[in-house]
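Support case: uracil complex. Customer-provided input:
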Amino acid sequence: MVAVHPAKPSARAPRPARRRARDGSLGESDLVDLEAVAAGIQACRRCDLWRDATQGVPGLGPAGAALMIVGEQPGDHEDLQGVPFVGPAGRLLDRAMAEAGVARDRVFVTNAVKHFKHEPRGKRRLHKTPDRGEVQACRWWLDAERRLVRPKVVLALGATAVRAVFGKALPIGKTRGQRQALDGGEQGLVSWHPSFLLRIPDPDARDRAYAELVADLKQAWRMAG
Ligand code: URA
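Agent response - structure generated as follows:
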């Protein structure tokens, strides 16, 4: 019997859409809306974090939101629910946003990295900080969200988000409160990550950092308004 091989695709022919969707390497022009980005994140194989995660967690909020808030990565709750900032850090962020007068449903909330990086410890899954390569690989999705949402202001919470948004490390204590122009035309701001606040043992220091987060949210909301 003669085996029939399909014609070899020419070097110029686009790769079939289904294959691209499966390996997560959708082209920029495929990412026409936030739904396409969310589907791409589920199929993403740009790094290995998908292997141990329940699902990818895309950003949440209206396209056209004037303010985008970027965290680090989904935690245990977010990984299970598929929604960003719904665990303890999310509850703290909600409280800070409410205190700052920020309407969460008018903000696009997302993460630098879309899959939960963790290691097992007994029955628990302990958070592990994503490395530079993982942050860089996932910038593809964050940049797509930024292109589609077109926020006026991007507020990066914590060191990982700062690296993803600004492309470099910035000392948060020294740079918070200072607006910085981003390549996409947005204004960038930095602040503390709510999980960092939850880990500060001294109550006075924790209160101070919380007040700073509220002040930074107020500033971001004012600039976005
Ligand atoms: N921490 C984050 O950075 N993002 C979440 O979604 C939850 C916790």
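DSSP finds nine helices and seven strands in the chain.

Case will auto-close in a few days if no follow-up is received.
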